[in-house]
Design brief:
Strand content: 25-35%
Number of strands: 10
Number of helices: 3
Radius of gyration: 20 Å
Shape: globular
Order of helices and strands: HEEEHEEHEEEEE
Largest sheet: 6 strands, mixed
């Protein structure tokens, strides 16, 4: 009887380890902070070190299920934070799919909230798609997307 329990316990542990080994490694995280509110996300696309095809990148930019955060464009700052792995590879902030910054190699960057709702930078309406593109030049290895919504009180 004891032997059966021991065999069953070893079998259960082995099965658990097998299930865990089949799990995908999580991608690095990116975080947006506005005031005291933050949203974080794993990669919308890629984030595993391999170059993304342009078609895949464009498809990701149209993804609807992304994190949202409100911004008062009259004085709030949007703070971008990335895992060191992303910073090591270089990253760019995209606004509606267009580069807003040159490649960044720090783990954080701050941008005035007014930029994201300024028509001069391509903003339209009360929300803006903001993405973090990992990789330098034209080669992207990951994309993290967020939607900035204009704070209704502004």
């Amino acid at each position: 009887m004891r032997r059966r329990r021991a065999v069953a316990a070893v079998g259960a542990v082995s099965a658990g380890l097998l299930v865990l080994s089949a799990c995908d490694k999580p991608t690095p995280m990116a975080t947006l902070t506005v005031g005291t509110s933050s949203v974080s996300s794993e990669a919308t696309c890629g984030g595993e070190g391999e170059a993304l095809k342009t078609a895949d990148l464009n498809k990701c930019l149209k993804d609807k299920g992304i994190e949202e955060i409100s911004v008062d464009p009259e004085g709030e700052t949007v703070r971008f934070g990335v895992d060191p792995e992303i910073a090591d590879n270089g990253w760019t902030i995209l606004m509606n799919g267009q580069p807003l910054t040159d490649a960044i190699h720090k783990t954080y960057q701050s941008v005035p909230g007014s930029v994201f709702f300024n028509a001069q930078y391509g903003a339209q309406g009360d929300s803006t798609l903001v993405s973090i593109k990992e990789g330098e030049s034209n080669e992207a290895t990951g994309l993290w997307s967020f939607r900035l919504k204009k704070d209704e009180d502004s």
